[in-house]
Amino acid sequence: MLKAQKKVDVRYNIHAVRFNQLLSIHQQRTLLHQEFTSQELQTFWHPDKTDMHLTMRTQMKATREAVEQTETEISKINNSLSDIYLTRKNWKSISQHCEQQGQTINMISSEHYVSMNQEIINDIKQLKKKLSTIKQQYLNEIAALENSYPD
Q1: How far apart are CA 59 and CA 57, in angstroms?
Q2: pTM of the model
């Protein structure tokens, strides 16, 4: 059971590090739809502004890649959540067994792991929620840039 707990802890730390990396990249990235009006974005596609065409296409490509990276991390988090729920459930079973056997110290130790896993679940759900928010901002960027392209 301790090996399973160590795996949970390691995975959580990996997700936290990856989230911080993605957040840092996101904070450094300029989202054009937040900097310019839709009318201004449309002017970037003017035939005389060919240098801006490349900038717009590059921005769309980079933003699509950011969506993929964010979706990949959300998927990994979802996979980890099921393992964490199972680990918490197993600790709870151990705690109940210890209580029935009158092993109070072991019951208390097991309950500590139940609580710790619940905290990890809550933290990971927050990471997932924040990643979903970042992903939505990227999707808004893609939509705004695509909508600015003249028909």
Answers
A1: 5
A2: 0.87
